[in-house]
Amino acid sequence: MMNVKGIHHLSAMTGSVSLNYNFYTQVLGMRLIKKTVNQDDTSAYHLFYGDERGNPGTELTFFDFPGIGSNRPGVSSISGTSLRVASDKALEYWLQRFDEYEVKHSEIASFAGRNVIFFEDPEGQQLSLVSDETNSGVAAGTPWDRSPVPVEYGIRGLGPVKLTVRKPDSTVAALKLLGFAETGRVPALVEGQDDIIIMQAHEGGSGSEVQVEPRSDLSVAGLGKGGVHHVAFRVEDKEELLAWIEVLNKAGLPNSGFVERYYFRSLYFREPNGILFELATDGPGFVTDEPFETLGESLALPPFLEPRREAIEARLKPIDTTLKA
């Protein structure tokens, strides 16, 4: 039986590419490892942030749609994104940094067996920092040594992802099909709701965890800036991805089939509550078309979009992402 290896990336929505870039690089200290376009709508930027080289499991990405309305929370949504840091001491550092930059945040709390800080980005995306102090399982990434945040406190990758749904059994069944297993339950964050179901895959730990939150009191979410478009899970290579297409077809889950994204290969499907899942290969990676030293500084286009570069660039508002000395 095949199993996904953990979380690959999350793709979210922004209405301001400059606001987004400044927050995620200058405040959170993540590296912009690819500045490209949404391959399905080339009028929109697609920014990839991650560790020093955008290793699988570290990538938080954004589609930029200027003028888009704000996200409306609800069911059938990816409602929480977490980012891993090395230790409880790192969380203490982040409390001070968030105060310095006037980031809306909680105090350090314990949730699902880890110490966390809940916070929001400037567009209201619901985020948290989770400590790896007692974590084991899927390995973390390596923070960039040219970040404004010291390496020992830097963001090391993606942690648990929270899905808010009306019918949790259906989402759990889809996750089990991918190789996830239930590892526990934690009390609901809202009085009167059922426990949150903790699911982990492969080696376990923060880098493979999905938290399924049942909510009977919410309407369906409306995706906008500050919302998350989809979550991607890691598979080894193209051959395994093709095998997953057969698994999904046999299970009666409509899917995109094979999609060439150049930096990785993908397929997409919606689990029964309507949340978009992606399976993505670990490679080829982001140094395919740019040197490691200058990742994210220029607009990168995959070969099948390169002939349209002039027209694509004409529709994009320029943003300077060159690294300052």
TrEMBL record:
InterPro entries: Extradiol_RC_dioxygenase, Glyas_Bleomycin-R_OHBP_Dase, Glyas_Fos-R_dOase_dom, VOC_core
Gene3D superfamilies: 2,3-Dihydroxybiphenyl 1,2-Dioxygenase, domain 1 (3.10.180.10)
Superkingdom to which the source organism belongs: Bacteria
CDD domains: PcpA_C_like
All copies of domain VOC, residue ranges: 6-132, 157-282
Entry-linked PANTHER family: RING-CLEAVING DIOXYGENASE MHQA-RELATED (PTHR36110:SF4), RING-CLEAVING DIOXYGENASE MHQE-RELATED (PTHR36110)
Name of protein: Glyoxalase family protein
Protein's organism: Paenibacillus algorifonticola
